[in-house]
Amino acid sequence: MKLYIVGFGAGDYEYMTIQAKTALEESQVIAGYTTYIDLVKDYFYDKEFYSTPMKKEEERCRWAIEEALKGKTVSLVCSGDSGVYGLASLVLELAEEYPPFEIEIVPGVTAALSGGAVLGAPLSHDFAVISLSDLLTPWDKIESRLRHSAMADLVISLYNPSSKKRSDYLKRACSILLEYLREDTVCGYVKNIGREGEEAVLTTLNQLKDMTVDMFTTVFIGNSDTREINGKMVTPRGYRIQREESR
Amino acid sequence: MKLYIVGFGAGDYEYMTIQAKTALEESQVIAGYTTYIDLVKDYFYDKEFYSTPMKKEEERCRWAIEEALKGKTVSLVCSGDSGVYGLASLVLELAEEYPPFEIEIVPGVTAALSGGAVLGAPLSHDFAVISLSDLLTPWDKIESRLRHSAMADLVISLYNPSSKKRSDYLKRACSILLEYLREDTVCGYVKNIGREGEEAVLTTLNQLKDMTVDMFTTVFIGNSDTREINGKMVTPRGYRIQREESR
């Protein structure tokens, strides 16, 4: 009677933590969004799988909780991290309606980190992670977060930068950011991080405004210190003039 | 002739990705901060190790680059992610001074994610990651980032919240945030994430102001929606009223 909520990283097996691998191995049942189940199916073939399409999160979480309550060990998988825009919060909310059972949240490498590593080191200093999806958040709140992040000179990682219904949202976001940031602010994006068709592009904020990206893309907006070095996006920490403290 | 910059996660072996494990296995030499080398030494015992104390990052990076240039496969290890306050940016900057060689940045689970999983799901919606260390950043910039993040209703994860010389910095940060946020804003912190002595505390912003944490602690400040559910810190995404888009 245990439910793991597992972030399995960018996609391929190697991006998973050993903790995530162990949780999936221990599970009898693995539940998740269809695309993610397809990604893990090949490596954990002796499991029972339950997949639901994208917009059925609550149903999927309830199913996983109920399987756990039957006495099974269940993993609910999320791409990237299980917390960052993942299912961990929904499960913790829903669990209030059920008898007690064990929940273990297994973190994973979210797209800001895996995409950042592909581009170079854009997130070496303070940063914000903002989703451009207004399905769950009013646009004026998203806009305020963009404005404040730009005013604070935070590097920004944008999730869900586009969808069929929101094809101009990245353009809108860039236009807002351009009120505060230089046109030549170093930016980049990575499509299909850690999967077939991975594609990384370095650009400037002004050019990014007119680019088209899809929903499988993570976008990075540099801060005033971010530079392009040998084709990589690098936000210096200032080590070369000063010294680091531990992290 | 290859240099991996490897984020190995919170500490213990299981928090490492399979990609990180493979990189370390392939390496002849592993370099890092003494404490981190001690963490990986037990699992990769047949390697050559090079460790330097905390404030010798540039020396350590140059040593690793020079070993790679001798034709060796070298891993430079960082706790958490290799990008987020890690050594990836410094290596990319220093590499300009050397002949070309192959660099691969291996991302890892940063403390915001691993600590978040211990506390519950604090980062389920837009968030900022801010270091309180003013060794590399002027305090007024840190303060501005705190103010803007609070005004934008971002969840905040604070790195380096304290040190011997900066014992009152968390108090200063909380006082600034209290100008914008409710006194009962749900907050939490995790000490020694994924290591011996792990300790998680849930509290409120007003109480956090008077708490003492050490440099091995990661702090989380909720947004206006963050709640405590069954002893966990949860920022809802709004799934229960609306539907998710993919990430």
Ordered list of secondary-structure elements with their pairings:
The structure is a homodimer.
Chain A lengths: L1 E6 L10 H9 L2 E5 H8 L6 E5 L4 H13 L3 E6 L9 H7 L7 E5 L4 H9 E2 L5 E5 L7 H13 L3 E5 L9 H9 L8 E6 L7 E6 H4 L8 E5 L5 E3 L2 E3 L13
Parallel strand pairs in A: 1-4, 1-5, 2-3, 2-4, 6-13, 7-8
Antiparallel strand pairs in A: 8-11, 9-10, 9-11, 12-13
CATH architecture of the largest domain in chain A: 2-Layer Sandwich
Mean pLDDT of chain A: 93
Percent helix of chain A = 25-40%
- Number of helices, counting only DSSP H or I runs of 4 residues or more of chain A: 8
Strand/helix succession of chain A: EHEHEHEHEHEEHEHEEHEEE
Protein name (chains A, B): Precorrin-3B C(17)-methyltransferase
Pfam families (chains A, B): TP_methylase (PF00590)
InterPro entries (chains A, B): 4pyrrol_Mease (IPR000878), 4pyrrol_Methylase_sf (IPR035996), 4pyrrole_Mease_sub1 (IPR014777), 4pyrrole_Mease_sub2 (IPR014776), Cbl_synth_CobJ/CibH_dom (IPR006363), Precorrin_MeTrfase (IPR051810)
Organism (chains A, B): Anaerocolumna cellulosilytica
Describe this structure in words.
Two copies of one chain form a homodimer. Chain A contains eight helices and 13 strands. Chain A has two domains: 2-109, Tetrapyrrole methylase, N-terminal domain (Cobalt-precorrin-4 Transmethylase, domain 1); 112-234, Methyltransferase, Cobalt-precorrin-4 Transmethylase, Domain 2, CATH 3.30.950. The longest helix of chain A is centred in the first third of the chain and has 13 residues, at 57-69. Residues 239-247 of chain A have low confidence and may be disordered. Chain A is elongated. Chain A is α/β, with parallel strands linked by helices and 247 residues long. In chain A, the strands form three sheets. Chain A has a five-stranded parallel sheet with strand order 3-2-4-1-5, sandwiched between helices. A five-stranded mixed sheet of chain A has the order 7-8-11-9-10, with helices on both faces. In chain A, strands 6-13-12 form a three-stranded mixed sheet. In chain A, 53% of the residues are buried. Chain A has helices at 18-26, 34-41, 57-69, 88-94, 111-119, 139-151, 169-177, 205-208, and strands spanning 2-7, 29-33, 48-52, 73-78, 102-106, 120-121, 127-131, 155-159, 186-191, 199-204, 217-221, 227-229, 232-234. The two termini of chain A are 36 Å apart. At the A-B interface, α1, α4, α5, β6 and β7 of A face α1, α4, α5, β6 and β7 of B. Chains A, B: One of its GO terms (biological process) is cobalamin biosynthetic process. Chains A, B: This is Precorrin-3B C(17)-methyltransferase.
